[in-house]
Design goal:
Length: 353
């Protein structure tokens, strides 16, 4: 079995992780808001669960090792963005595994210019990841970035639906789960301390000194909406840029499956990944998303999990594909070939006339 994992986050946390960002406490065996199962030591989607002293290169090496163990031959590595290491640092670390990683730059399409897209391509990036924009994905201000990506044949992975992470209030609400209650109190206490420290720093601040700032994780609300990240916005982008390769994450997101199926059906270069965790996997089986509602040829595999969870994640999909009665050819399309054709590593195979 060969795998192209389309949804692999650059390891975060520890040295080289986002400075000043305090990760939310983790729940043992809980799911996040997208349904991904969380184990101890795991704080947020895509975070590495390694020991704090692990260097960024060691974390990347560990991730590569775990991916290779399950048969991954290519992995779209989502790099840079608002937090953590720079694009330059990420690409340098990733290229130690050049045969495996296909680097994707996490961007805000309103801030990354047409020229900057070309610079990122020259740096070694082969695709992009977009999430949490303060305006809908299809806002006209995003067009220059999309135009450049189309010209350079650089696929874009778009998050779809609610952004998960933090505490799963369905699986383990603090009213009924003691561990969740403890973690919630810790989160509230950490937020209160951060605010008190900030207020004291503001009180004693003098002109000429660095401006006090709250740590990144406590700076207030997030200016985005799940309604900005719906599959129908991808359809608008596909209409404007008909050769742009587009991947919507998480089957389009909970609540958006019908939209995803319609867009995948009628827009040639719009695909969806199957990441998201147990809840979305259950929905995929119960609602016939794989093959019945969304064509087999328009789905790609994505793990979107920590390095040490990759084995278990792949095993679930092996069981799911067997239970669905998929042929070996269909399995290979989902695991590898659909993504490989999208990136030009395999020639498309069409029916004979």
């Amino acid at each position: 079995m060969r795998i192209w994992d389309i949804h692999v986050h650059f390891p975060r946390g520890g040295p080289g992780g986002p400075p000043g960002l305090v990760p939310p406490p983790t729940m043992p065996e809980a799911e996040d808001a997208s349904g991904r199962r969380r184990g101890r030591g795991r704080g947020r989607a895509g975070a590495s669960a390694g020991p704090p002293q692990r260097t960024p290169q060691e974390a990347v090496d560990h991730l590569a090792e775990r991916l290779r163990e399950v048969g991954t031959v290519k992995a779209s590595l989502l790099c840079g963005g608002r937090f953590g290491l720079s694009y330059e640092q990420c690409i340098e670390l990733a290229m130690k595994h050049e045969d495996l990683f296909v680097p994707h730059a996490a961007i805000d399409p309103a801030e990354v210019t047409y020229e900057r897209v070309y610079q990122l391509r020259a740096m070694g990036y082969r695709g992009f990841k977009i999430i949490g924009t303060p305006r809908p994905y299809d806002h006209p201000d995003h067009n220059p970035a999309y135009k450049a990506a189309q010209e350079l044949n650089m696929p874009i992975l778009f998050h779809c639906g609610v952004i998960g992470g933090g505490m799963d209030l369905l699986a383990r609400h603090p009213r009924r789960d003691p561990e969740s209650a403890k973690r919630m109190r810790e989160m509230d206490a950490a937020a209160a301390k951060a605010r008190a420290d900030y207020d004291e720093a503001r009180r004693t601040w003098q002109p000429g000194q660095p401006e006090p700032q709250l740590p990144m994780g406590f700076r207030g609300g997030r200016e985005t909406s799940a309604t900005y990240m719906r599959p129908f916005h991808l359809e608008t982008i596909a209409n404007r840029f008909p050769r742009l390769k587009i991947i919507g994450a998480h089957f389009g997101g909970t609540g958006n499956y019908d939209e995803a199926a319609s867009v995948a059906r009628w827009r040639r270069w719009v695909y969806f990944d199957m990441s998201g965790g147990r809840t979305l996997e259950r929905h995929a089986v119960e609602r016939g998303l794989i093959g019945k509602e969304i064509p087999i040829e328009k789905l790609v595999f994505g793990s979107d999990c920590a390095a040490d969870e990759v084995h278990e994640h792949v095993e679930r999909f092996v069981r799911m594909f067997d239970e669905l009665g998929l042929t070996e050819e269909e399995k290979d399309l989902l695991w590898y070939r659909n993504a490989a054709e999208m990136f030009g590593l395999e020639e498309p195979v069409w029916a004979q006339e």
